[in-house]
Write a structure and sequence with these properties.
- The protein has one helix and three strands.
- By secondary structure, the protein is an alpha+beta fold.
- It is elongated, with a radius of gyration of 12 Å.
- It starts with 10 loop residues before the first strand and ends in a 5-residue tail after the last strand.
Amino acid sequence: MACNCGKNKTQYEVVDTAGRRVFGPTTYKTTAQAVADREPGREVREVAKGDA
């Protein structure tokens, strides 16, 4: 039976000012926030279920 690890967790991605994903998806919000903080204009947002 296949692993269902992380399937029900909220996932996050980092997007730039144009709305393009530059990192993710990941289940770790702190990791996504650290990547977003590296450059101005980037933000973290939740990935809708079924998008990833």
